[in-house]
Design a protein that fits this description.
This protein has 265 residues and is of the alpha+beta class. The chain has two domains: 122 residues, Beta Polymerase, domain 2 (2-Layer Sandwich); 133 residues, Four Helix Bundle (Hemerythrin (Met), subunit A) (Up-down Bundle), CATH 1.20.120. It is built from eleven helices and five strands, in the order αββββααβαααααααα. It has a five-stranded mixed sheet, with helices on both faces. Helix 5 packs antiparallel against helix 6 and helix 10 crosses helix 11. It is elongated. The two termini are 38 Å apart.
């Protein structure tokens, strides 16, 4: 992402939200959406602006969404402005990875209440214990997908085998993201998201090969690549699968799996 494009977008967003600062309960605003994604956006990209309103004033909002039109020429949609109550955005405990990832990339437009920046930081934060738990969960899911994919292929159930490869790749992406203490990217921006997080290009290529390579390639190379990344980081939990499996069956493991698991196991 060209930082000059982001800077110009923030400046334009400030002009757009200026009239809304007089709304009762106005707390501030931030810029989100695909323009903020790594490797995306240009000077012609539409803006996605979220205007935060205090909960007590939100019921009196007369609009929830407004489209801003640049009359050009050429005439085009310039921005979507979403008006939302504070509590609708302040969900640091949400199990939607996409909301955390996008919050981590969002930029403050206006923060007179001095709460918007803290909200985004809280939503985008990945604590060390949480990252370890998520890596344990998703590595175990990846391993189970590898086992099940081989069994399905041996039985000639190729559609089921292919589905396990897709789920295994998803588990691998999540493991790699949390290894770098970041939230997993939105699925359609996986390559750019992993690259932005610092995942080596060779490892990203292995993810891609599992998804779009020969149908019989399976997950073994991807499993080995993820193991290598965990080894390089000095982690050891993935080396003892029986211990890891016991963790999954424990109270803590079951809580993590219920909230964040892919439903594989």
């Amino acid at each position: 992402m060209d930082e000059s494009v982001v800077t110009a977008a923030i400046q334009r967003a400030r002009q757009i939200v200026q009239p809304f600062a007089a709304i009762e309960g106005y707390l501030g605003s931030f810029l989100t959406g695909s323009l903020m994604f790594p490797g995306a956006g240009d000077a012609q990209s539409e803006l996605d602006i979220v205007v935060l309103i205090a909960d007590e004033a939100a019921p009196r909002l007369q609009r929830r969404h407004q489209v801003v039109i640049d009359r050009g020429p050429p005439r085009r949609k310039e921005a979507d402005v979403l008006f939302t109550a504070w509590s609708e955005q302040a969900h640091a405990g949400t199990t939607e990875d996409i909301r955390h990832w996008t919050a981590g990339l969002a930029r403050v437009v206006d923060d007179p209440s001095q709460t918007v920046a803290a909200l985004l930081a809280d939503m985008g934060h990945v604590s060390e214990p949480f990252a370890i738990d998520r890596m344990k969960l998703h590595f175990l899911e990846l391993h189970h997908c590898w086992v099940k994919e081989r069994r399905m292929r041996e039985r000639g159930e190729l559609i089921n085998a292919a589905y396990m490869v897709r789920l295994g790749a998803q588990a691998a992406v999540k493991t790699l993201a949390f290894l770098r203490r970041t939230w997993p990217p939105v699925p359609h921006w996986t390559v750019h998201g992993l690259r932005h997080a610092g995942v080596p290009a060779g490892v990203i290529d292995v993810v891609g090969a599992a998804l779009v390579g020969p149908a019989d390639q399976g997950l073994e190379a991807l499993l080995d690549a993820v193991r290598g990344q965990l080894d390089a980081a000095g982690l050891t939990f993935h080396r003892e699968l029986l211990v890891l499996d016991a963790w999954w069956w424990s109270g803590d493991g079951q809580v993590i799996a219920a909230r964040w698991g892919l439903g594989i196991m």
